[in-house]
Design goal:
- The mean pLDDT is 69.
- The protein has one helix spanning 3-8; strands spanning 13-17, 23-28, 33-38.
- The chain is elongated, with a radius of gyration of 13 Å.
- Strands 1-2-3 form a 3-stranded antiparallel sheet, with no helix packed on it.
- It contains 1 helix and 3 strands.
- InterPro entries: Pput2613-NH3ase.
- Pfam families: Pput2613-deam.
- Residues 1-43 are annotated as: Disordered.
């Protein structure tokens, strides 16, 4: 565990638009899984 994560509780997270362009997919290092989130947030 690095000091930044220890101090802030921050998690590594990647987010990208899913193939249908109506939602986004988010991968979280904490949960080690990908989840689909409705609403892409980018156009």
């Amino acid at each position: 565990m690095n000091s930044f994560k220890g101090a802030t509780g921050a998690d590594v997270e990647y987010k990208w638009p899913s193939s249908d362009a109506k939602s986004s997919e988010v991968w979280s290092a904490k949960s080690k899984k990908t989840q689909k989130v409705s609403g892409s947030g980018c156009g």
